Amino acid sequence: MTPRWWAAASAVGALVLTLLLAGLSLAVGGYDPIEAFGALLRGALGSPSAVLSITLVRTVPLLLTGLAVALAFRAGVWNIGAEGQLYAGAVAAVWVGLQVAALPAWAAGSAVLLGAAIAGAAWAAVPALMKLRLGVGEVITTLLLNFVAIELSAWMVHGPLQEPRGVFPQTEAIADVARLPIVVAGTRLHLGFVIAVGVALLLAAALRWTRVGFFVRAVGASNGAARVSGRVPVARVVLGVFLLSGALAGLAGGVEVSGVTFVLYEDLSPGHGYTAIAVALLAGLHPVGVVGTAVLFGVLEGGASAMQRDAGVPAAWVDAVQALVILSVLVMDRVARRGLERWREGRG
């Protein structure tokens, strides 16, 4: 069995283990697992409207933040700050969206998304420089900056960017020309989904077929070996990956503002930046795989309300399922690594 097959088997095993653990926990809690899963699937996939207006719309921020995490982890950069970078992008997107009313739609929309990406990259630049210049581990710095970004966003909607009447803790709605167009008439599916899938394909191609992609994979495989070889600019690769990862997470915030909410308010994200870690790990850090796992988590989020309404299961239970996914991924990853080592020893 090849390494790619081991990775696929690990992902499938993680999903099966998650279903078993989730079903067992539901049964212990006094709920019917079959009824609960059925309600979840009907709510997320039961009709074209549910798929397009709920599941795929919820998939978009998970996909972009999942790509941000997957790219960083592929290079051995432990960016845990996608949540904060998303908020930084959302704040920038709202500010830009309030300034571009006089521009054509294509220019206004592009400015909003570009501003969000730049803000996300700028937010990631702080831990990146601390890592490269001061040797400070990025796990702690990126995690702590999440709280700073969330509080900054809350301050903005209570202060400088609060709507003119000062009644609600949110901003004024961005200009109509800055909003992403709907791609399927009669649904809420916006252009952000197309952009996110396109980014995944471009990222996969770049990692597979470009020199820069080889450098990213080399640094991720062995930072020390890449540095000793003298042919891989390790510091520049780490900095570039950090900034691009932040830009993708910031773009997620911009897409959410310009495609879904049109305003900024407190708790804009229900934790997309943290869920992105599970999305990326379950996909084996492969950009194309992230598309599938993001849809899976979109199904979980999209079906949560239906599961609560039809089966009486608290919607917060979906958070427990996501935690089970992470635990299952870790277990199956360890099993797959041992199997791969034995396979390589057999070939040797």
Automatic annotation (TrEMBL):
<keyword id="KW-1133">Transmembrane helix</keyword>
<feature type="transmembrane region" description="Helical">
    <location>
        <begin position="277"/>
        <end position="300"/>
    </location>
</feature>
<feature type="transmembrane region" description="Helical">
    <location>
        <begin position="51"/>
        <end position="73"/>
    </location>
</feature>
<dbReference type="Pfam" id="PF02653">
    <property type="entry name" value="BPD_transp_2"/>
</dbReference>
<feature type="transmembrane region" description="Helical">
    <location>
        <begin position="112"/>
        <end position="132"/>
    </location>
</feature>
<feature type="transmembrane region" description="Helical">
    <location>
        <begin position="85"/>
        <end position="106"/>
    </location>
</feature>
<feature type="transmembrane region" description="Helical">
    <location>
        <begin position="237"/>
        <end position="265"/>
    </location>
</feature>
<feature type="transmembrane region" description="Helical">
    <location>
        <begin position="139"/>
        <end position="158"/>
    </location>
</feature>
<feature type="transmembrane region" description="Helical">
    <location>
        <begin position="189"/>
        <end position="207"/>
    </location>
</feature>
<dbReference type="InterPro" id="IPR001851">
    <property type="entry name" value="ABC_transp_permease"/>
</dbReference>
<keyword id="KW-0472">Membrane</keyword>
<keyword id="KW-0812">Transmembrane</keyword>
<keyword id="KW-1003">Cell membrane</keyword>
<protein>
    <submittedName>
        <fullName>ABC transporter permease</fullName>
    </submittedName>
</protein>
